[in-house]
Every structure is written in structure tokens, then in C-alpha cells.
Design brief:
This protein is of the alpha/beta class. The longest helix has 20 residues. The protein has a single domain, classed as Rossmann fold, CATH 3.40.50. It has a 5-stranded parallel β-sheet, covered by helices on one side. Helix 1 crosses helix 9 and helix 2 packs across helix 5. 50% of the residues lie in helices and 12% in strands.
Amino acid sequence: MSCNKIITITRQYGSGGRDIGRALAQKLEVSFYDKELITLAAKESGVHPEVFEEVDERPTNSLLYSLSTGLFRYGNGFSTMNDLPVNDRLYILQHKIIKELAEKENFVVVGRCADYVLRDCPNVVKVYIYADIDSRVQRAVERQEIDPARAKQAVLKADKNRANYYSFYSGKKWGLVENYDLCINSTHISDAQAVDLIIKYIDILNQA
């Protein structure tokens, strides 16, 4: 598969991964994809974006997907997509869109198993952003307006959902260091410093 230069961001909840990814894309002057992928999937499928938002980065509860023998065994036009659970339809559409984008442009993408989807692309830099639990809880309270009394539980639950989603669709374990090129602990550094670290790493790769 031919592809452009892409940075995938996998992140623990509350680690700042989304903000870091957006700031990175701005500094590199490339496209940024996160919730934008839901909009693109909704436009392609005719499904209302709010329907997809409800199941974004959540695995299906159905056995239909896991019993299938291949993502695209449904045909080039996804003729039987309407028979699938909404979760699976969204994943398949996002999978397709990410691959198509990879052939057209440079970009930063957050979550959605993008590191797995683009595993055959030679120009992908896979980044994992993590932080200690207290830092993540504080960020969740301050930036995402989560009830302080329930913040820790919400953070851990979000991580579990992401791990389940990644495992379900990739067959791999989420958060393992060997899955990534660069792992950054954002606990004691700013988003801007994290961005600089990623860019420095990319520069080093380009010099190799």
C-alpha cells in the first residue's frame, strides 16, 4: 500500500492526546482527523452523524462482526452494510476512509485503530500518549467537565472501552509499547513540549 506521511496518536483518556494531535497537525500544517472521520463516514453512508457519535470507538455487542471472515467480504460497495450493527458500520467506513486519505495527503489521526489500519504503510509514525492517573483525572475534570467525584471511575472506564475497541477490531492488545514508535508520558510536560518531542523524533527519522 502506498501512503503519505502520517502520524497516528493512540492515547489514554485524559492524557491530552487529542489536544497534542491537533497542535501537532497545526504545527506541521497538515490535516487533522478525529471526530472529522465521523462526519466523513456519515456523509458517505447517509447515516446521521449523531448516530455514529453514540458508538464512536466502542466495540459492537454483536457476534456478527467477529464471525465474519474479512472486513471487506461485503463487497466493494458495502452492499450489506445495513445488516451490520452501527458500531461495525462505522468502523468499516472509518477503516476505508483512513486508507483512502493515506493515499492522498499527510495527516495526523487520533484513535480509531489507525495504527493498525495503516500497519502496512511505511511512512506511518505511531505515537502513544499516556500519563499518571492523578494527572489524567485532573485534566478530565478541568477540560472535559467531568464530575470530580466520579472522575477517576470515568477515566478508567474510558480506557477500558478504548482497550476493548482496539482489541476487538485489531486482535491486538491496546497500549503495548511494542505497538508504537514513540511513547510519551505527558504528566510533567506541556502539550507544546509533547509536540516538539514528536517533531524531533520525526526529524531524526528523516535524517536516518
